[in-house]
Amino acid sequence: MPTQQTAHADPTHVGNNMYQLMRELYPFCRSITGNGNRKTLEIIKQHIPLVVHEVPTGTQVFDWQVPKEWNITDAYIKNGKGERIVDFRKSNLHVLNYSMPVKKKVSLAELKQHVFAMPEHPDWIPYRTSYYKEQWAFCMTYNQLSQLTEQEYEVCVDSTLKDGHLTYGEYHIPGETPDRVLISSHICHPSICNDNLSGIVLNACLAKHLSRLSPRYSYTFLFVPGTIGPITWLARNETLAARIKHGLVAACVGDGGNFNYKRSRRGNDEIDRAVIHVLKHSGRDYQVWDYVPTGYDERQYCSPGFNLPVGCLMRTPNGMYPEYHSSADNLDLVRPEFLAESFSMYTAVLDVIEKNKIYVNQNPKCEPQLGKRGLYALVGGQGDRKLQETAVLWVLNLSDGEHSLLDIAEQSGLRFDVISEAADVLLQHDLLKEILG
Amino acid sequence: MPTQQTAHADPTHVGNNMYQLMRELYPFCRSITGNGNRKTLEIIKQHIPLVVHEVPTGTQVFDWQVPKEWNITDAYIKNGKGERIVDFRKSNLHVLNYSMPVKKKVSLAELKQHVFAMPEHPDWIPYRTSYYKEQWAFCMTYNQLSQLTEQEYEVCVDSTLKDGHLTYGEYHIPGETPDRVLISSHICHPSICNDNLSGIVLNACLAKHLSRLSPRYSYTFLFVPGTIGPITWLARNETLAARIKHGLVAACVGDGGNFNYKRSRRGNDEIDRAVIHVLKHSGRDYQVWDYVPTGYDERQYCSPGFNLPVGCLMRTPNGMYPEYHSSADNLDLVRPEFLAESFSMYTAVLDVIEKNKIYVNQNPKCEPQLGKRGLYALVGGQGDRKLQETAVLWVLNLSDGEHSLLDIAEQSGLRFDVISEAADVLLQHDLLKEILG
Amino acid sequence: MPTQQTAHADPTHVGNNMYQLMRELYPFCRSITGNGNRKTLEIIKQHIPLVVHEVPTGTQVFDWQVPKEWNITDAYIKNGKGERIVDFRKSNLHVLNYSMPVKKKVSLAELKQHVFAMPEHPDWIPYRTSYYKEQWAFCMTYNQLSQLTEQEYEVCVDSTLKDGHLTYGEYHIPGETPDRVLISSHICHPSICNDNLSGIVLNACLAKHLSRLSPRYSYTFLFVPGTIGPITWLARNETLAARIKHGLVAACVGDGGNFNYKRSRRGNDEIDRAVIHVLKHSGRDYQVWDYVPTGYDERQYCSPGFNLPVGCLMRTPNGMYPEYHSSADNLDLVRPEFLAESFSMYTAVLDVIEKNKIYVNQNPKCEPQLGKRGLYALVGGQGDRKLQETAVLWVLNLSDGEHSLLDIAEQSGLRFDVISEAADVLLQHDLLKEILG
Q1: b vs e for B225-260, b when ≥16 Cβ sit within 10 Å of the residue's Cβ?
Q2: In chain A, which residue's Cα lies nearest the Cα of C65?
Q3: Same domain, yes or no, for B348 and B384?
Q4: Is residue A58 domain-shared with residue A78, that is, in the same domain?
Q5: Residues of chain A falling short of pLDDT 70
Q6: Among all residues of chain B, which has the CA nearest to that of A64?
Q7: What ipTM does this complex have?
Q8: Same structural domain for residues A104 and A241?
Q9: Does C108 lie in the same domain as C14?
Q10: How many A-C residue pairs are in contact by the CB < 8 A criterion?
Q11: What is the pLDDT of residues A118-159, one digit of tens each?
């Protein structure tokens, strides 16, 4: 069982490790399929013994089919002089993700019909995708677009779109119970840091961290392309999915914004309460959002046929920071110390989940005599009372078989770890007994 | 089934029709019984095929008996010179409604014991009744009262109070289901416009409007004298009353004030939620009141032995505008455009009630692939999403057999009609199936 | 059954009686055992026929044992000149309550290790106890402590701590039903007025007051030392405890502060709602606190093995006034008029509890005709309605077998006594019938 001590590794060290891993993963051109994802998972495999799955194109997964595999080696726009004025080698965002191959001469007018740009941020390249409609296009800065003159251009996307596989990684840690905690991150974005290299590296570090402990719950760490990834995984793991008792989608955890938690569809399940408890006692501003059916892969986990208790703990949410889905979501936006804070937040949440048990007071009629057990001040009348003494009284009073430690923490207003330690002390004195919830 | 299109007739046209009908009905001296009510119902019958019921005096209706029938032809107070200084022919409010007949000479002192006036509004004649205590009296302006001098007066109320009938009108529209919607208006006030010629004409126009549609619910439109009217109707229609699933008392709907909704005794039944949803999205200020056992005929529908889900949707509530129960509640206070707005509000509420069904997502495990059905943007990553796309996701996510469309509208914060249209689209693609709630 | 009239005795008279009794009880050196408690109960016995119980030392009461009995006859500190510089005869607070006997010469340094003082209030003697750790000590003002010079002192505590008894008093009033109301006050504090002679005298006066009535509920009035007292009583009265339907711990009811109510562990039981209703309509500021497992003897009554609906109605709560647990909590802090207000508050609460029944409307379908029974204004249309008429309508509308009179008072916003009187009138007209809740 992870203890408060082991759960909190050195933040600077952890932050630097996460950032270093992110730097390694940054250059690959990820998508919902393809070699960029394979390379990403191979590198993660150097840290945790990930199992990498390859699911063939055309495999039926619920209402969907695994799409053709997309790979790309080069892409550019050349001007009349043969100069690469837009170059995939400079940024993989320059190509519409999943763009069809193309190589031809086009007029400025035709070219413009195949270009995305962001007039509101003229220096940034937007990130755009077209997974399910076959088309070719480029993304460029608005400044680049503005400077295009009337001439003939050569456009080239050296990509392939053919039968292959969808690739995802998973890592399981067995626990004392088959009940399971899921941490899921999407891996389909190319060179974009906060969305979602930050979630990927947090997920990997959490997995590594948990692998060193002997947790109560079993854990599943998923590295999947967005939407089609969790759909594929759920289709292949329905039985296992039914064991998921708590889950989080890890995304956008590397910027410096406040924490934001989007509740699971269930709204106030244990994972929701655990996250909100930790945020409340974090001393930081934070925001909690009700479930909505838009967002990340919680959309699939929380679809009505599964309705798993999976929330999403982010810093600045998707779409709410200007750099979102652009080349400005880069290695400067995400910082090691922000990643470290997110890691601490996640481990604190998992600590609550791990330790949140239901106990029954073994001396339920009146208070037990705490003084003779050394659990109570011996001079009375002074009016003040130590926090731990108060916590002991709360645990005794509410351990009636209907309140978990998290319930007691919430009702008392005390931190979960203070309540949890009080329960440990009472357990040592045989004043509590665990029951199965 | 009424659609949004058919439900919204041209407002100006509707408002003018309602106002015109109100002008026709204004002069009659209505009460809880009598010929004024018969004439009123006869005119309404020109618009909708009302069934007019006559219930004999003395008929036991629960704890009550149908009272004697009251009719009046003339009334006046003459001064010493024989001049009519108070004249029923000028305003039927001048006579205490249900006044006993009288014809005699009285001193000023005696006269004053039989006079009601409103010192706070010296130009207005108050409206007063005495249905269940036999007495005679006049109502006059405070100015009139102040000018009375010491002399002998002749008072005359040429009324009759004898065995007869209580008259009420009802109109039924059969629907797909025997479950029933009730719209009830009191018809017992004489020449008073907002309270409640406005409710009467709204009720009649709603009935005419619904008669042109093929509604899901059956409808009952009631035109009854206050208190004794619904008591009589309920006593004679207990079986039918048990089928009422939603109801509104229509009263005070012609002034220019904000809308006010008084909840049914059940507090948050479907009718309450439908009205509040429509008000919330109306872009207007409004107020919602908890149920209280004072007010209009919802008092009877919501008595504990019935406890029907009947609320009261008004503009300025009874007793909360200065002209209430006086001669100033007249054809100037009520305007066609206010009546038209009320009509729109009522039809919007009925539209919600009609379309509020429960569907089940036929592809509940993960999202269905909306793109291949043309229900989803094909270029991803742009961060904005069309309202209709969001609505489709909400309907899919919450159509688990436990959420009606109104539930989904409330939870999503979207307008009911947006949600309802999304459901229609999904039905067309066989992604939803209706279940009976 | 107590009526509103009998329930409210003359406040000045009641306040003076309570204050006089407090003066008599003030000098005794009470503790959790001993003769001070016996003398206290003897004096209360002059007012109500208290049964005094003596429970031998060593008796097992749940997890506790009845401690040795402590008695004290004298205590002092003498300076080198043989002068009593600290004298138990001047204030029994000077001795650590339950201090071991001692008689010896000590240096200043040693003496200081056995002294408690309050630097923040240099003129006050603190009140300190050591029930379960055997030690000797004195309490003195900080000024006294500061003036001690380097010399030899003689310390003497002429106390005994040996096998004996724990003494408590109880008084039962049988009611129509064996269901029981508990009022409990702790008697273990020596010469301290608000905490808790105020509670003791209020408890005694309430008992005397109730003894003159024929209440619906049975009543138990308890005068017990804190903590070990209710534990002993509960251990010896488990069957009777199970009949307790409502209870209050009476403490700190004599100062001039606002009322404070600490809810029972159940949170919103009938006693909680009754107290809060009375406070809400009192026209005074007040505060309501959620249950916490610290405080007075509600800690034992509300332990999870009992979970009795026992709250604590105080004025300024324990620990929240500066004089708390010091010699300044004396006959000046508590005043007759404050005691009288507390008495009125408690009797008003008991009045609600006594009269809070569930009735069923005998004419549930539509309103009964109130006019023919003289319960309704006979001239209609005036727009205002008497409070009692409104109350009658509320009682009729909500008397469906699911709402008690307190429910109706809360839902209507009317005072409980107005609702209760309306119910009485309706009972007289056979329009209501009591059912057992």
Answers
A1: bbbbbbbbbbbeeeebbebbbbbbbbbbbbbebebb
A2: A369
A3: no
A4: no
A5: 1-9, 378-385, 437
A6: B369
A7: 0.94
A8: no
A9: no
A10: 89
A11: 999 999 999 999 998 899 999 999 999 999 999 999 999 999
